[in-house]
Structures are given as structure tokens and as C-alpha cells.
Amino acid sequence: MDTPLSNFGDHGQTGDVQPLIDVADLARLLRHDPPTLLDVRWRLGGPPGRAAYDAGHLPGAVFVDLDRDLAAPPGPQGRHPLPPPDAFEEAMRRAGVSAGRTVVVYDDADSTAAGRAWWTLRYFGHTRVRVLDGGYHAWVGAGQPVTTEVPDVAPGDFTARPGGMPVLDAAGAAALAKAGVLLDARSAERYRGENEPVDPVAGHIPGAVSAPTVGNVGVDGRFLPPGVLRDRFGELGATDAVDVGVYCGSGVTAAHEVLALHLAGIPAALYVGSWSNWVADPGNPVATGDG
């Protein structure tokens, strides 16, 4: 079921904390008021994020597996559909997540996986979630300590309540591509149908606009300034004056783009099933090329 963007709040303001945190502020928090720290390193096609975690992670961080904990098993709903509320709640409690305690999530650098963690926690009702801007690479680059010690965390009390972020299904995405702005966060080559390394059909949803996620961050993986992001999305027709939605291959990089839009002051809905769900129905139309 679609969630109207009108339920998202003014300018996409989804909570009472800033969505990004830098290395210096996180280091200070860890010394004085430690948040729940989640390592969500992951890459499409591997290698497994757990191996990176075991080789070294931020002190106190708990590993959360994107495929297992932030998504349900792949199927007709897509390669990374939303997990059932009870399964997500159990995974987050196991990681020490509690409703009243800030959660900080990080990945290697560009916040692709961290963006999905941020979005999923927000969708299920956690109001205090932050992303380490620049991720693990920024932390190490600043000379901050890492460890291989796996923390013994007390179970959290988080209760999953779906509906905290707006979502789209296939019908909603098709409608938004006509009546609003639907952004395709995949590479331009995948959008045009020139290359499709994962899904069985190449191309894009008719009416969607190409907006590759890589354009949201700098070479260091940190998000571009809000004004730059706002200009970028504005050139694509996405502003806070129109309804905006985002999809990608399976709802991971699109969540990152929702976060970038949020930083720019533009509320946006996520088509969680994304292209992998769209092409599961042979009746859905497919466009190729630049239009």
C-alpha cells in the first residue's frame, strides 16, 4: 500500500535528530553518551560484510546483515523486500536497538547500505537514527581506533511499527512517473538498458528520470552539501513542490537517494521492490534509451 507524501511531514523532516553525523561528533558521543552503533557494510555481489566487520570495526559496533536483517528473502516482491515487522524487531533487539536511544549506522564510505538501514529503521518507527558520513573509511582516515572485539550487548526494547516512511508499490510508481517525479537511482547505463548485471530485463519504468546515486556523494563518499543536492534534484524536476519517488534495482541505493533528498529538504517515497519487482510482472511496460 502506498503512503501519501502528505504524511511524511514538512520538507521531509522525519525526526528530531540530524540524519548525518561526522567522525568528530561520533567520537565525542562514544566517549560521553554512546549510541547503539550498527556496522552494516555490504556490497552487491559481495564480499560478505561480516568478513570486513571481523577484520576491524568501530568499538562497540554490532554487525547487522543487510540481506538477512534489513530485508526479507528475495521473491516476486523484489530482491530486497521489506522484512516482516516481527523479524525486523527481533533482529534490532538482538543488536541492542532501543526506542529511546540514538542509533548510528555506518558502512564502508558512501552510505549505500547505511542509507537502507537508516530508511528501514525510520520506516519501522525509530525516530533517532543517524548515518556516519563517510563511513568506516572516514573513521580510519581520521586516526580513530578500531577493534576486532565483538561486543556483548544487552537486548534492546525496540518495537517495530510500520509506516514511518512513505512507500510505493508498482502501481504507485507508475502513477507517480506520470503525475510527479520518479527518480531511477541506478547507473545511467542500467537506466538506458545498455547493461543489466542482475535483473532479467534491462531498461527503466516509463516516465522515470535517471538520477544515479553516485551523484549524491563526493569522491570521499561523503554527501554533497544540502544546497548542491537541492540544485541537483531541482534540475531533474524533483522539488518540495511536487510528489517525488525513487527506485533502483532492489530498494537499497534508492533508500540512499531518499536520504539525499531528505538532506535537500525534499520528501520522497521509496519503491521498495524497485526494478526487481517491476520486471517480475511481464505485464509491466519497459522503456529503454534516454526517454
TrEMBL record:
The keyword Repeat applies. InterPro entries: Rhodanese-like_dom, Rhodanese-like_dom_sf, Thiosulphate_STrfase_CS, TST/MPST-like. The keyword Transmembrane does not apply. Keywords: Repeat, Transferase. Residues 31-148, 176-287 form the Rhodanese domain. It holds the Pfam family Rhodanese. PANTHER family: SULFURTRANSFERASE, THIOSULFATE SULFERTANSFERASE. This is Sulfurtransferase. It comes from Actinomadura keratinilytica.
